[in-house]
Amino acid sequence: MLAQLPPALQNLHLPLRLKLWDGNELDLGNDPRVTIVVKDPSLVSDFTHPSLGLLGSAFVEGRLELEGSISEVVRVCDELTKALVDEDDDNLPVRTEHDKATDAASISYHYDLSNDFYRLWLDREMVYSCAYFKTGNETLDQAQQDKFHHLCRKLRLKPGEYLLDVGCGWGGLSRFAASEYGVKVFGITLSREQLALAQERVRADGLQDRVELQLLDYRDLPKDGRFDKVVSVGMFEHVGHANLELYAKCLFDAVKEGALVMNHGITAKHTDGRPVGRGAGDFIDRYVFPNGELPHLSMITGFISEAGLEVVDVESLRLHYAKTLEHWSARLEEKLDVAAAMVPEQALRIFRLYLAGCAYAFSKGWINLHQILAVKPHADGSHHLPLTRDDLYR
């Protein structure tokens, strides 16, 4: 059966071993650190064009096994596909229509999997977004607390203000802003599992009078300018390119003049927002975040500006997210036996590849993450932001 493997594959020099269902093995280099165990004979012909999407799908579906450190598996598979697969430069960006029912189903698919499963590998507050590492040596718990502070300081939160938290997740930031900065918070999510635990934690902290969390679509937010500040973390990736204009308008309508709006989320490498190449983006869309679409920084800032908000500060946290995902991946790998009892086998396979793969993608610059701070100016164009960033770092 080894003779059926494409010649291009046999001429590579990678620390990779191919093991076939019939017991035959082929080392593609000295000292292989990763083994691909091909269980389905029909996969052999696909190795003429083994994209990341193909390999990922075959692993998720149990048609092949991947042996070795999951981070090393991702690195070696990237080298393998890079040698044999085009970069898909003509891969057009997706423009999916996002209605409320579709978005609710997509969110439920990913976030309603199991609170206990997420608790295994997230920090103690279950913050499912990029942490902030001041030195790089912080624990995940500390880095997520520092991220909360970083966001709240950028928003210049003051006691008594009314904060809108769009995509509040398990409520960590909402509770933090209320307890540490003295604000009143209204948070929304489309995940019933997240909401139930978030509300439980609000009650446990005795914050019911300051934190209100609801199951609500961003399109149903009040448009009366009642909020002083808005924070949206890890949410606009689910909005879709077709709805970014509406999303930005909803944020504009929700806040009063002089208000600050913080949008923290993943952005695309290419200005047209095309998915990551070699099938990696397709894998994420099919198995991890259905209907998720990443806009380029220029795309989302364009819609924010057209809505009437003024972009006043942009910060890339790409390398922070690479480190965050490395923490998450390592924590999950340490508890695979426990995780296997909590979620279906296919789900665990998906998350193993997703966490390690995204850590690699951020480290390589395939995708980015930006914090975009905007202000809704007064009618005369004025606002009350400091002239410098000095106050953020005192």
Structural account:
There is one protein chain. It is elongated and about 70 Å long. It folds into two domains: 2-84; 100-393, Rossmann fold, CATH 3.40.50.150. The longest helix has 20 residues, at 345-364. The strands form two sheets. Strands 7-6-5-8-9-11-10 form a seven-stranded mixed β-sheet. It has 14 helices and eleven strands. The chain has 394 residues and is of the alpha/beta class.
Determine the structural class based on helices, strands and strand pairing: alpha/beta
Strand content: 15-25%
CATH class of the largest domain: Alpha Beta
Strand order of the largest sheet: 7-6-5-8-9-11-10
Biggest β-sheet, characterized? 7 strands, mixed
Q: Please state the second-level CATH architecture of the largest domain.
A: 3-Layer(aba) Sandwich
User: Which superfamily, in CATH terms, is the homologous superfamily of the largest domain?
Assistant: Vaccinia Virus protein VP39
Nearest-integer average pLDDT: 93
Question: Secondary-structure element order, as H and E?
Answer: HEEEHEHHHHEHEHEEHEHHEHHHE
Question: How much is the radius of gyration in Å?
Answer: 22 Å
Helix content: 25-40%
Family: Belongs to the CFA/CMAS family.
Organism: Pseudomonas graminis
GO molecular function: methyltransferase activity
Pfam family, one: CMAS
